[in-house]
Amino acid sequence: MNSVFVLSSTKKPLMPCRPARARQLLTAGKAAVYRQQPFTIILKDRADGDVQAVEIKIDPGSKTTGIVLVGHFEQQGAVVLFGANLTHRGQAIQSNLASRRSLRRGRRGRKTRYRQARFLNRTRPKGWLPPSVDSRVRNVESIAAKLAARCPITLAAVERVKFDMQAMTNPEISGVEYQQGELAGYEVREYLLEKWNRTCAYCGADGVPLQVEHIKPRALGGSDRVSNLTLACQPCNQRKGARPIEDFLKGKPDTLKRVLAHAKAPLKDAAAVNAARWTLGNRLKVRWPVAFGSGGRTKFNRTRQGYAKDHWIDAACVGESGERVTLRDGFKPLIITAKGRGTHQVVRTDKHGFPRGKAGRIKRAFGFSTGDRVKLVQPAGKYAGVHVGRLAGIRATGQFDIAAQAGKITAHRRNFTLIQRGDGYEYAA
After folding, report:
1. What radius of gyration do the chain's Cα atoms show?
2. Could you report the per-residue pLDDT of 365-384, keeping only the tens digit for each?
3. What does the CA dihedral 236, 241, 243, 248 come to, rounded to 10 degrees?
4. pLDDT, tens digit (0-9, with 9 covering 90-100), for 202-217
5. What is the layout of strands, in order, in the sheet containing 31-35?
6. Hey, which bits of 44-111 come out as E strands?
7. What is the DSSP string of 210-269?
8. Pairing mode, if any, of strands 347-349 and 13-17?
9. Mean pLDDT across 18-28
10. What's the average model confidence in pLDDT over 102-129?
11. Cβ-contact 293, 322 below 8 angstroms
12. Residue 177 pLDDT grade (very low, low, confident, very high; cuts 50, 70, 90)
């Protein structure tokens, strides 16, 4: 379980404490709950206190980023105090932009048929990133700022380079064209592990040693490009040998179709990580000294300490300080999901692009707004009971929608209690 963040009576961040200690302070009336997620208490009778060095460590990813806080103590060494997996919404942003672009082009085609092309009169500012990539950087930056307000962070460590695009596309490149380096083989293998979910592509076995396998055997003219590589367990690799994959999987048409389709998947996830690798570090440098570590060192630190593969564990093992880090037994990370803060779209459209109604005009009603974390006490009906979740919709009539574990529930506002204001994220323990 994560440690509990502690603030002084003047809202100065102090060292996090164990949940048991936080319960004692709350029971004795010496502290009060300041925030539910991440759980934070504020002391009533202490305005200051001694703090130790705390490091924020980040393992950037295309879909999920691992974030941890590591405390450096004289006797205990490096100990993980807080861990979280941050899920991004880059694909949703890309889909929304594509939809908006298609609607805009259709509208211009209907209303300004002879409008001159506009593709040479736009400039991008220095350091521009695609919106889907920039959202990933801003998400991490936002969560880091929230943690800095609750914990005395003094330095940061970020995994910088994870994938070598050129080496993955053509692993044999060398000489003047490219100085390959020691990590070229690791880059390809690590990418394949993430692409194929660390399982055998043919039988689905996981938790076993996996070998790099050529989908089209080299004996039949297959290349070393990453689009022709997959992962297979030793028995499957030996049975396949130099046979064509169509012959090897002739009795498994669904598996054959899946492998061939997945092999052609683009490198967009790797490209997204590479595009933002420097931007994230430069933005964090405004707050703290930043140390960078390679993906090879992260994996080396994790495997040597015998830790399982997870984003937040990779973050704990980033850089030189990740060589020896302690994870408490039963430690579970906080799951943070980026949800955004609404939309600027004025008119809703159907799948064909035709208007179907205006967007809601109400931003806040009766002290509630969409995205707030609330508790619903439903007295009767199908969903009778207590539900905790995120407000999915509000109306001036007082009927609110809550996205809870039981599903989407509509109830009157008098049955709702505000737990925490929405900040664009959803939290789950």
Report:
1. 25
2. 898 998 899 999 999 888 99
3. -10
4. 998 888 889 988 999 9
5. 13-17, 4-7, 40-43, 31-35
6. 53-59, 64-73, 77-87
7. EEEEESS-GGGT---SGGGEEEEEHHHHHHHTTS-HHHHTTT-HHHHHHHHHHHT--SHH
8. unpaired
9. 94
10. 77
11. yes
12. very low
Q: What six digits make up the tokens of 257?
A: 């179709």
39: helix, strand or coil: coil
Within this chain, domains 165-266 and 360-423 share the same CATH topology: no
Residues 296, 278, 282, 15, CA torsion sign: negative
d(C-alpha 65, C-alpha 311), whole Å: 6
Assign domain 165-266 to a CATH class. mainly alpha
Find out if CATH 2.30.30.30 is the number for domain 360-423: yes
Give residue limits of the domains in the chain: 1-50, 165-266, 360-423
Residue 64 in tokens: 């999920």
DSSP, res 177? S
Beta bridge partners of 418: 374
DSSP output for 284-334: HTTTS-EEEE-HHHHHHHHHHHTPPP-HHHHHHT-SGGGSS-B--TT---E
pLDDT of the residue at 350: 82
Would you state the pLDDT for residue 315? 94
Residues 213 and 189 sit within 8 Å (Cβ to Cβ)? no
Kindly report, residue by residue over 127-164, the tens digit of the pLDDT. 888 898 999 999 999 999 999 999 999 999 998 765 55
